[in-house]
Design a protein that fits this description.
This protein has four helices and nine strands. The strands form three sheets. Strands 4-5-6-7 form a four-stranded antiparallel sheet, with no helix packed on it. Strands 1-2-3 form a three-stranded antiparallel sheet, covered by helices on one side. The two termini are about 35 Å apart.
Amino acid sequence: MPTMSKGTKPQFSFYHQGTLSGLYACVVLLPETESDVVVLVNTKPANDSADRIAQLLIETLLNSPVKNDYVTLTKESVQSATHPFPRAAESLRKGQVLGTTPRPFEAYRGRYYWTSHCYFVEIVIGEGSLKFVIIDRPDQIFEWLTTDAEEARRGRFIQATDAHKITLSVNEVTSFVWHEMGGGKT
């Protein structure tokens, strides 16, 4: 994230940036200039375009003497964002322990309930792999480490590498930790 409006007088601002799958928003209120910038993006961009556009507009609004090169910054971030799959796959590969033997798939099969029992994940055996059935809906089976194109097709938000990790307990498979779920163990 670049420092914006270099060379201008620092001023207080209210900033809100929000994202959902397929929706990006950036709202900046600048009380001293009695102005605001609101950028809404209703598509899944390859970078945080709402923030970039808002930064460009703020630099223009404040007549910044030193402007960022947002075209170059955007090209760099698009290049980085459109190639996450190889980086995520490499990161997951580095975390593997060589020489270990996985348990048979049958050891992992079953339902794993959230501590509140309001949510569960079911693990089933597919064709040579494990699959996760979310809340017993067979049409909602997700395999992890999908490509950017696949996440876009499903309308899913781009995830960090840890979102693709599920840690199963060591001795007996009775629970797992889905790293992306804030509550921890299931």
